[in-house]
Specification:
8-stranded mixed beta sheet, globular, 424 residues, 16 helices, 20% strand, alpha/beta
């Protein structure tokens, strides 16, 4: 360890930390395959699939609970109707904007031809199916456009950049995921400020001009487990998804203590959130008009998940990070995301510290108007798994008053190793 940051912060005192458990509603669906088949067996859904049809099924890039089971269940149902399914990566500009990169993401989630029992076709080529009233081209994957029908699958949850009737879900999948890089770029062209309107306009354009048969939605609870599955006809998508979005907001995990001075995040990655760490949890968005999440002065990101394949999109939302994380970065995929979505802030690199200890101390040092003898720190593993977290001793009294928080340990000092890290 060494360097100018280490010298500047080496004497910054750190508080003792307490491990606590946050409790949320844990209701979940145990058998995804059964739940999907029950929904798809409704006559209004089943009747849209005719024998001999060649049907495209979308698969996104997020770490959706049991994604491969969803994909297999849908493909199996299509085959049971006498039709021929195939899966496409529907993930906009993710995977470095390459067919190989997008296929690699699906493989990492276990979505393979062998497991799902149908072809997976990864191609960045798109077809323009129509134009919006203001002249923007609406593009979708070429193979989806050529299919006899499209089944749109996605998880419904609050978006990380905007608020609207439709955020992350079926409508956004049709707007951006299905559009590949070219479609995502067209949809983002007006900027994040207008994205809620764009998702509605583009989504309805795809719904009415492409051969969308129906949508399949998953909603997850605060433990990242599927708690609801819903199938909706083409015509029902706008109505049903709006209701599911409202429901999803009640299932989101959160930091039950609303404020701190410093937030520490062990890992970021695309498997946790589009911008690495979900702003709905951290409270740090790439714009000034989206609100919500935890309030704090500074934030530190320690590491990058292997599942993110080097994509550190969202790193720019932190104030400090570590050399370890930066060395794991493959800049190209993250830059592709930032430029396509026009979220340039997320592609930046914050102040880089040589160790996690230096990063924590720098974060404390950068806070203003605080009592440094009682600094308030929250440490989470990632923004998807918030059941067990760490809080500083100064937050203990507040935590004890919350019925959803259980104290698991006595206050203990930060356990840095000789390299200044909390974990390998």
């Amino acid at each position: 360890m060494g360097g100018i940051i280490h010298e500047l912060v080496k004497d910054v005192p750190l508080p003792r930390m307490v491990r606590v458990r946050q409790t949320f509603d844990a209701a979940q669906i145990d058998d995804v395959h059964e739940a999907v088949w029950k929904e798809l067996s409704q006559e209004k859904i089943r009747s849209t699939i005719q024998p001999g049809m060649r049907i495209c099924i979308t698969a996104g890039s997020r770490g959706i609970d049991r994604l491969r089971e969803f994909e297999k269940a849908i493909a199996d149902f299509v085959k049971s109707c006498g039709a021929e399914p195939f899966i496409i990566p529907a993930m906009g500009s993710h995977g470095g904007c390459t067919a190989e990169g997008q296929l690699e993401i699906l493989t990492g989630y276990g979505v393979t031809e062998e497991y799902c029992g149908c072809p997976i076709i990864s191609d960045m080529a798109t077809t323009t199916i129509c134009h919006t009233p203001d002249g923007h081209p609406v593009k979708i994957d070429r193979h989806a456009a050529e299919a006899d029908g499209i089944i749109v699958f996605n998880r419904v949850k609050p978006h990380t950049h905007f608020r609207g009737k439709y955020e992350s879900g079926i409508m956004k999948m049709m707007t951006i995921g299905l559009g590949k890089q070219a479609g995502a770029e067209s949809a983002h062209d007006t900027g994040i400020l207008h994205l809620a309107e764009v998702v509605e306009t583009f989504g309805n354009a795809v719904r009415t001009h492409a051969k969308v048969l129906f949508g399949v939605a998953s909603v997850e609870n605060a433990y990242d487990k599927c708690c609801r599955v819903a199938a909706m006809t083409n015509e029902e998508i706008p109505i049903v998804e709006e209701a599911l979005q409202a429901y999803a907001k009640t299932r989101m995990p959160c930091i039950l203590l609303p404020e701190s001075d410093l937030l520490l995040v062990d890992q970021i990655g695309k498997n946790f959130s589009g911008p690495g760490a979900d702003p709905n949890v951290t409270g740090t968005f790439s714009n000034t008009w989206t609100q919500g999440g935890h309030k704090k002065q500074r934030m530190v990101f320690f590491d990058l998940s292997a599942e993110s394949h080097g994509n550190a999109s969202g790193l720019g939302l932190a104030d400090f990070t570590t050399r370890r994380l930066v060395e794991k970065m493959d800049p190209e995929p993250g830059y592709a995301n930032s430029i396509t979505s026009i979220c340039i802030e997320e592609g930046k690199i914050p102040i880089v510290c040589e160790s996690q200890e230096d990063a924590v101390k720098a974060g404390v040092r950068a806070c203003t108007d605080i009592d440094r003898s009682k600094v308030r720190i929250v440490r989470i593993h990632n923004t998807l798994h918030l059941d067990e977290i760490y809080i500083s001793e100064s937050l203990l009294e507040e935590a004890e008053k919350c019925p959803q928080i259980e104290i698991l340990s006595a206050p203990e000092p930060f356990a840095f190793d000789e390299e200044g890290n909390l974990f390998a």
